[in-house]
Amino acid sequence: MKEQLTQLAEAMRREIKGIPQTMLQETVVRQALVCLLYQAVKDMGLVPLAGWKPPRSTREGLDLVGVDDSGELPRVRIAFVIDPLVELPRIKALEWVDCEDKIVVSFSERADKVQQSSFFLTKAHTHLQLY
User: Fold this and answer.
1) Architecture of domain 2-129
2) How far is CA 26 from CA 6, 33, 122, in A?
3) How many CB atoms are located within 10 Å of the residue 80 CB?
4) What is the pLDDT of residues 89-112, one digit of tens each?
5) Angstrom distance (rounded) from CA 58 to CA 38
6) What is the pTM of this model?
């Protein structure tokens, strides 16, 4: 999985660079990355669900989850949250999901701010810092 995530991170960097500089906005970047990850999750043989919110959760929804629906009950296998910085409410939303891979993607060019905000991460999270 680590090699696959490294390749995904590189693809996400290329996707961001492809956005015209004059149109570069946080929401545009997030949606571009969700679109790219949607296809990647589909290629993993999982069912991608964008904006899914865990049942009984009072938290925000997740940007994308990959669901294995081959069993009796569907099971989330991978979950993504995408933000410029690591955001505590988004980390809390990830905690509601029982899955092996909880991926936090940060895309701010301010590496110092990303580093400061990554305080919230635990060993249960994989952090893809794009810059």
Assistant:
1) 3-Layer(aba) Sandwich (3.40)
2) 22, 11, 25
3) 26
4) 999 999 889 999 999 999 998 988
5) 24
6) 0.92
